[in-house]
Queue: 4 jobs
Job 1
Amino acid sequence: MINRSHLPAIVLLSVFFPLTSTAAIIKGPYLQSPQQHSITVDAEVDDGSDCIIKWGDNLENTSPMVGESPHREVRIKSLKASTCYRYHVECGADTSPEASFCTAPTSEEPFRVVIFGDTRSDHQAHSELIDAIAEENPDVFFNTGDLVSDGQDEDEWNEFFNIEGELLRDVPMMPVVGNHDEHNGEIPIYGRLFSVPMESSGVDNYYSVTYGNAHFIILDNQADNLGRPKDNTSEGQWLENELQSSSDNPALDFIFVLVHENMYSVKDGRAGDEGLRLWRDKFVQLGVDAVISGHDHHYVRGWADNGLPFVVSGGGGAPLYDVSEDFATQGQEKDVSVWGWLPEPGDKQFKVIWTKKEHNYLVLDFQGKTLDICAKEVPTGHTGKGISFDCWTYEKGQKPEPDQKGDEKSGCGCRSQGTSSGAILLGGVFLAVLFRRKLRRSR
């Protein structure tokens, strides 16, 4: 379990000795690329200042941050797995608020992931969503693309970090390229800001990351051309190799594909990504557990015609989309036909089981081979954690069944409640995780 026993002092310092923002540090520090023995810390400055990071139980370690202005970053290595460290960043005369970073857990330990997307446009909705997510105390979170409305506009990225900056100081975020983040296939600002793990792909627009016993494959079907399996694109070749190596890894219990535009859509006038749909048999063959995306600004959960689960969580702040009336459902399976060009008979139908027009995010709680997933909505003006509406328990190799009432199932968000039957069954292990999560940070 992650050792967070030293973190209450950090919280108290923040409460009793407020820290104001600095002039030179204009973004960050923020966390990227969490692994068991390393993590990346990024920041941006407005005056060309050199930066260092001080980290450790007593801030006894010092590392220089490098990069072309305005960006600064450092990869801290040789860390202990499942361990939290205090840190702050110094750029010139400016010092960031003290925070903490935590390395990824081992494959045997429980952990929490949050996934959502499309945070552009409505800054108030985006802020309320981030406040709700902070209450969930995730270990890592993913944004499935369209972080901003115009990826070429520095002011929009400034606003993005104004909203997410406090959470990003303590919790690493892994991004997906959305159509609004790129321009003519280029992602200069996105690429500068985010230090994603490039070890497997060699590029920053698609990559993979292992966290605990789960492997997340991040695709780019916006700035790049994933194509169909037979197209043999660079990204497609990488994806095929990544799927095979992940499937062969005995330490991985779960494999997820994260991408901006999903295989299917229930928005009038859209059909989803046809090229991605043609990967669905390969995904099932090589053990992908679900395809999770944004792009459509609402919530959808369903299955491809071959049983592959998919989820759309694109309610991060962009204008909400209506769900086609024929497809609207809350717990009852509906068959949906894909409109437009159908290149093969198997592409004609898919199933949806839950749709909702509301700002939303996903909470995924991993405990061994069991995964509890809960979709939560954040209506305008809502405070605190999101309101659960579609929760289910997923066990490897079994088709997940929804909770028809929309209530949280065992393990779905219950780490903060401590009242579910799952908490009783997990006993002392569960209570230890709960206690240490509460110590991690106070929001």
Job 2
Amino acid sequence: MPVFPAMMQSDVVLRERGNGAAGPLRPPAGRSIPDDEWRLILEEAREQEVSRCPPDRGLPAETIRGIARRRGVDRATAAVYAWLLGAPGQGPAIEAFFAGAAAGPSPDVIRAAAGRLTVLVVPGAFYEEHPETGAGGESMIRELESLRIRVHRVPTRSCGTLEQNTAILRRALREHGGRECALVSLSRGGAEIKCVLRDDPGALRSVSLWVSVGGILAGSPLVNWVRTRRVIDWLNWSIFRWRGRDYRCFTELARGAAGSLAFDVGVPAHMEVVHVVGFPLRRHATSRYARSWHSRFAAEGPNDGVMLLEDVLGFPGTILPLWGADHYASDRWDFRFLAAGILRHWHGLDTAARTPAAANG
């Protein structure tokens, strides 16, 4: 299945790229976007807020929110997407990842990864209670196992707190014994890795690549919305209590000071970070639940139905925008494609790290 849902090839090409960069703006390699949606992206690329944004700086959150207020959340989503493709600090890396994923891992890449790499998958919240969401990483695990790559799911608690799951993750990294590994986190799993970066960055010394899929790194406005409505919050708390769950596993994911993720972290020089993030328009929402949350947060800016896209823009790393996928669209996230891209990307990092050593040896 494609990463992007039911897309037809677009012939529309921008002859002067936004952000002052030269060359045409095109969909990432191997991907196609419906013509009307691609025209929307190109229109936003030409708007002053995007075209005049310095290419060597991030797209300000205030700019994104302003576009959402004036022209709607769909145009704001298209504007951020266009900016990412055109930004010198993001566009080439996005194209390289998608091109590698489309080509697939070569036999040499698979042999190298099978011999040296272990992938640890950090699942998202409620993966045991709701396996249909794909938050347990089963699709990614199956794809990697089919290529004979060593892959293990970190046994975090499905309804555990950040403190509990961070301790489990740190223990898993220690048990890994310092052998080279890559981390693939899903949704809340990204928050747990962020906490390890703050509390014990040395635990990540053997991690060369972290791929955060839909990572909730700065909290979710969904939690804030529930917490500010006393009756709904009480009902939610009651359900958690009735099921014997710690309500903190929900409340600490609030965005901003109300939660536990309002802190910045640095990323070690030896570890590269890749964020895989859904970029849905209103029409792309896969369910009534997804449409409800996406619309509810529209005034705050582009979102995937759980988190605001502006939050990932402030985190170190390369952002891979998946046009047309929301946070809940597990059927639209092509994990074979992502697994191929991860292996190709890891092999490139591994080759670059080994080349100086070989030259000096």
Job 3
Amino acid sequence: MRYSCALTLILATGIASAKHDVVERVQSSKTVFEEIMASSDKSIPRDLLEKAHCLVIVPSLKRGGFIVGAQYGVGVATCRQADGAGWTGPSTIRMEGGSLGLQIGGGETDVVMMIMNAAGAAKLMKSEFTLGGEGAVMAGPVGRAATAETDAYMRAEILSYSRSRGIFAGVAIKGSTLRSDDGDNKALYGRAVTHEQVLKGQVKTPAAAAPLLAAISKYSIREKRSSAGPRSTEPALPIVHASYSAARVESQRAYARLAREVRHELVTLPFYGVFDNFLYRIEGSTVVLLGQVSRISLKQDAERAVSQIEGVERIVNQIEILPTSPNDDNIRLAAFRSIYGHTALNRYALRAVPPIHIIVKHGNVTLEGVVATQADKDIAALQANSVAGVFSVKNNLRVESET
């Protein structure tokens, strides 16, 4: 009897210790994320955070070696809820092996990764996958440098960031393995749960994780919009203009979820940029794709991405592919410089995908998107009209207060 009691006490102590360790890991992840985001000039761009499907945070990754740096760390992963707003409870993960680019000496570093598309999220939901192998990783942009290579950033499945405490250079992750930590998940959730169940939002979020999710939502533009009140059922669309037929949708909630997911899939497509403009219309379970794109692959990718959304049964793809023309290409570049180079409008260029979209066809320019004021709308049209070779300018820009 004495031995039985002792064994019970040892087991209980071990369980309590495991729970304490994993809660501490969640708290450390929150602290790391908040500290990184608090530096406005050196933080993760919020426009990119809005586009992220999932986040991985690994506090105090242990690394060592010169050039080739073996590493090991534990952290958490969380993904967008199915309706596109809010985050799932965290799933605990381990990061092992590989290297973070050029390393000088040993030490510890904090790592944050953003998974930028559905394919990357699907890989993350596996119990194990290799970064830089199965998952294409690129060093993410920081602060005001976010728009320098937008297309390149949007092609990457994963954008990675690091914050060093020792001597360290480089954030390109190669060869590291991410694997689920099922034992710690059991300690955190109080029962056996799978990595995929957690990241799909099929498990109730534990109270210990609420501060972490609140911290992520604090810096996510989308969460701020979704908490703004009744307008969240028809989300603000600075990049995509949606025309709706809500009466034919079974419920407003299902319609709103579908609208958010369609928009998210479209604006996070690789190569989607300032010279393209997506529109869409929802008719029950049918999604009609509209707008103009400068690449044929974008039309195909849009249909492919939207067709994978739950609840979409049919796609009508009416996206126009803009004709290839050296003259139009010159006008696009000149209009971009004229509009975003104006002192009243250059702040918009700091966003991951600038919101004033410039559609050029046979020398005719159409401006699409959302700006803050009527004055900005008027200035954009004047700047476009000033470009040599432009025959006409149609100003379809909308003002935020009117959307």
Job 4
Amino acid sequence: MRYWKNGRFGVICKVLVCLGVAVLLLEPVPLFGQVPSIPGYGGPAVASRGLGRAGQRGSETVSLTAFASVSGTYDTGITAVGLDQQGNIADSGALLGVEVVVGAYGTKTWKRRRLGLDYGGNFRHYTGNSYFDGSDHYLALNYTQQLGRRGALQFSGVGGTTSRALGSNFGYATGYDPAFLTTPLNDIFDNRLYYADFSGRYARQLSPRSSVSLGGGVLSMRRRSTILIGTNGVRANGDFVRRISRNTSIGAGFNYMKLEFPRVFGDSNIQSLSVQLSRNIGRRWSVAASLGAMRLELTGVRQVNLDPVVAELLGQLVGREAFHSINYFSIGSLTILHTMRKSDFSIGYNRGPSIGNGVTLAGKLENFTATYSRVVTSRLHLSTSAYWSNTTGAGSYGGSFQTLAGGVNASYRLTDYASFTLGAQERRIGVGSSQFNRWSTRLNAGIDFRPGSFGLWPK
């Protein structure tokens, strides 16, 4: 409510709501039996509109499917918020344990709407150190509603809680959607985090080849440790897309985001403009790219050296002062997808805003992801992935944090409903302004149960 009542963003929120209500009132009656789709979806999806892949596996939609697994685990390099007896950042050492994972995923299509769901939860126990026991949960939803011949609404959300960036829920073998800024892939500390990111947009087809969309969203991140910084945010966006051929689309988009940081003095306003190009290459390949610029305005507090006279008077050498900085960055993204009957391959690069990692405030984030999965035989399935990111704070919170990670997973089907699984993940975290360098390893082996799809969706 604070964003709604105060400031210029409150005005923007009210304008968006008024426009949305007006558009809905003017919208024609939906056609019975029309398949739900986002206007303009006849061509390739543009980067600014997100992936919207909740519930999918690869490029395919699947019925609701539940799964569960029991595994033995080996973890190293868990980074707690604290110092050891030598004054170094605490390290868990090697831990042996057991983990139970449950979840469900799938998509459902009705006459004029579509719903996708992904849920995963784990419960872990370490035999030698119960301090690191815990449970993580993740939920992603994507809902599309057709509104007449030319309009559609889409809502997407992701939320959960975790104390581990490396593990069953957030392993780097999963896809990364840059539309969700709260995905906890770049946190330094393995501290309990609660996060939510929700967005909605209305898209309208102006002609058989052109469409516009208008949307907004809210996000929040809370960390249990009082020394780590959380984030609250609201955002608005819009774009125009033109399909210039059956396989090629171009567009332009605008984004605005307002961030505030609980527990510290500071806020940030971020505006960006970008142009996009998307192309389907044959039946198997698709490419989406964007390029633009970002203006990041940041207010915070910094430490300064006091004038000698003031220092003598106060009896201290340093003080704090408020600052205001304006920063300009280039932004861009590139996503390449290749799908075949028995394999999927994707690579992605994204350069855009960072909403903080618990240590920095707003800044710039670069990341690169690559994933590959293949059905080797009717029983054997392999997947591998790699991830790299660099987070740079703006203003006086200008630290640089690098993450390098990768993972390999194998699954061998024992019966129609059970498989033997093996997995290995490795992650390195480094800080550019210090000597901190932490390697983390996870190894797991266990049994995975998948009873298959079942009809629990409402009709």
